[in-house]
């Protein structure tokens, strides 16, 4: 790869903590994206991080723009990172919920996040480890960072799956479907039907125009398939990695390019009077992090659902506190 290309490009360093399945798939997607100039892998299993970094550095020769990939054993290497992605932690086993992982992964964050924050006080933390909302809240407290610089991947994946399912259901390209999943990245998440639209038309009007029934049972089926997608995948292959890695790469892209894209990511705040708690709402992503500029105009039923979801996550946070 010509050196001149690397010199012309603005330096963008990304650190990935956790060189497991999600971490290395994200590293590979980032490498091919041409968005970054340096990727650093950190894992408690130093040999694994080293092996993955060398393998990825060979793949780097085939990327559009060259990026350096290396492993590090110290969190001091987070210095100057634009974004530190946290993917370290235990994974769901078939039948486990994301909340089952909380104790182990919270202890891991308590040891890792303060070290990251000390080395990279101006960085943006991007949390993928589950349960992602609880750990986004923990990362905020443990880092002392402002809320806009602690972002959880949240329901960005669920929103993508939802649009995918709706696109299939109505026979249109998912890009023409505007609909979001908000709340917990987990079982209490909720689809915002009242604001869903296709090609700029409210879903109800779209259905009327097209002569198809606006069918609540079918809609519940779409929401259930969205909610159950990760369980279905884990049942079959034991983990999920490509979808989440692509979502993380896309979030990095919106931040690095300061694109002002609106994405459903998790962020600490107060929701329907419950808080502080992290959950997902549409947020604007730019160079300084995630911003909730405009509140969603939810229906009363949806506000109830959001309150329930916030309470659910808040309950887990309090249960950790009680030890
Ligand atoms: N947010 C999402 O949409 C989403 C999707 C898939 C997975 N996940 C979550 O991401 C996490 C990782 O999943 P995975 O499939 O990559 O698991 P994995 O087991 O493949 O990788 C986890 C890695 O973390 C490392 N690790 C463990 N303790 C560490 C520590 N103290 N410091 C540094 N590294 C440490 C392990 O050595 C391992 O390499 C899980 O919590 C999983 O639930 C989230
Ligand atoms: C990012 O968005 C926030 C909220 O809208 C705004 O205050 C800030 O100036 C923006 N920053 C950049 C770099 O665009």
The strands making up the biggest β-sheet line up spatially as: 3-2-1-4-5-6
User: What is the CATH class designation of the largest domain?
Assistant: Alpha Beta
Q: Give the CATH architecture of the largest domain.
A: Alpha-Beta Complex
Query: What is the N-to-C order of secondary-structure elements (H for helix, E for strand)?
Result: HEHEHEEHEHEHEEEEEHHHEEEH
CATH topology of the largest domain: L-2-Hydroxyisocaproate Dehydrogenase, Chain A, domain 2
The largest pleated sheet is described as: 6 strands, parallel
Percent of residues in β-strands: 15-25%
SS summary, helix count: 10
Structural class: alpha/beta
Low-confidence stretches: 1-7
Give me the count of strands: 14
Anisotropy-based shape? globular
Average pLDDT taken over every residue: 93
Calculate the terminal CA-CA distance, rounded to whole Å.
52 Å
Q: What compounds sit in this structure?
A: nicotinamide-adenine-dinucleotide, 2-acetamido-2-deoxy-beta-D-glucopyranose
Radius of gyration: 20 Å
Describe this structure in words.
By secondary structure, the chain is α/β, with parallel strands linked by helices. It has helices spanning 3-8, 21-33, 46-59, 102-119, 132-143, 156-170, 203-210, 216-237, 242-256, 300-321; strands spanning 13-17, 38-42, 68-72, 83-86, 124-127, 150-152, 177-178, 181-182, 190-191, 197-198, 201-202, 261-271, 274-286, 289-291. The protein folds into 2 domains: 3-152, NAD(P)-binding Rossmann-like Domain (Rossmann fold), CATH 3.40.50.720; 156-322, Lactate dehydrogenase/glycoside hydrolase, family 4, C-terminal (L-2-Hydroxyisocaproate Dehydrogenase, Chain A, domain 2, Alpha-Beta Complex). The chain is built from 10 helices and 14 strands. A 6-stranded parallel beta sheet has the order 3-2-1-4-5-6, sandwiched between helices. A 3-stranded antiparallel beta sheet has the order 7-10-11. The protein has a 3-stranded antiparallel beta sheet with strand order 12-13-14. The chain is globular. Mean pLDDT is 93; it is low at 1-7. Bound molecules: nicotinamide-adenine-dinucleotide (NAD) and 2-acetamido-2-deoxy-beta-D-glucopyranose (NAG). Residues 258, 284, 286-288, 291, 293 line the site of 2-acetamido-2-deoxy-beta-D-glucopyranose. 2-acetamido-2-deoxy-beta-D-glucopyranose (NAG) is lined by residues 258, 284, 286-288, 291, 293. It holds the Pfam family Ldh_1_N. InterPro entries: L-lactate/malate_DH (IPR001557), L-lactate_DH (IPR011304), L-lactate_DH_AS (IPR018177), Lactate/malate_DH_C (IPR022383), Lactate/malate_DH_N (IPR001236), Lactate_DH/Glyco_Ohase_4_C (IPR015955), NAD(P)-bd_dom_sf (IPR036291). Its EC number is 1.1.1.27. Belongs to the LDH/MDH superfamily. LDH family.
């Amino acid at each position: 790869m010509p050196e001149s290309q690397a010199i012309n490009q603005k330096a963008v360093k990304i650190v990935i903590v956790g060189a497991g399945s999600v971490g290395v798939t994200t590293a590979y997607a980032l490498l091919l994206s041409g968005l970054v100039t340096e990727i650093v892998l950190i894992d408690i299993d130093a040999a694994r991080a080293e092996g993955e970094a060398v393998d990825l550095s060979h793949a780097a020769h085939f990327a559009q723009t060259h990026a350096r990939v290396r492993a590090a054993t110290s969190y001091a290497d987070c210095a100057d990172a634009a974004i530190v992605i946290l993917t370290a932690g235990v994974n769901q086993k078939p039948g486990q919920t994301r909340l089952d992982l909380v104790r182990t992964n919270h202890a891991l964050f308590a040891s890792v996040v303060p070290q990251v924050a000390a080395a990279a006080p101006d960085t943006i933390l991007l949390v993928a480890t589950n349960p992602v909302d609880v750990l986004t809240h923990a990362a905020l407290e443990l880092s002392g960072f402002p809320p806009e610089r602690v972002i959880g991947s949240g329901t960005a994946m669920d929103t993508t799956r939802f649009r995918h399912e709706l696109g299939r259901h109505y026979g249109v390209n998912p890009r023409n479907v505007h609909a979001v999943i908000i709340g917990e990245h987990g079982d209490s998440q909720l689809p915002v039907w009242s604001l869903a639209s296709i090609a700029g038309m409210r879903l109800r009007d779209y259905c009327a125009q097209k002569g198809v029934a606006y069918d609540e049972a079918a809609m519940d089926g779409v929401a259930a398939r969205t909610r159950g997608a990760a369980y279905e995948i884990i049942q079959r292959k034991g983990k999920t990695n490509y979808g989440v890695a692509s979502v993380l790469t896309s979030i990095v892209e919106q931040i690095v390019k300061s694109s002002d894209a609106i994405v459903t990511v998790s962020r600490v705040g107060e929701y329907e009077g419950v808080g502080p708690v992290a959950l997902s709402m549409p947020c604007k992503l730019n160079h300084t992090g995630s911003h909730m500029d405009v509140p969603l105009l939810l229906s009363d039923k949806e506000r109830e659902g959001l309150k329930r979801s916030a309470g659910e996550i808040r309950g887990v946070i309090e249960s950790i506190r009680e030890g």
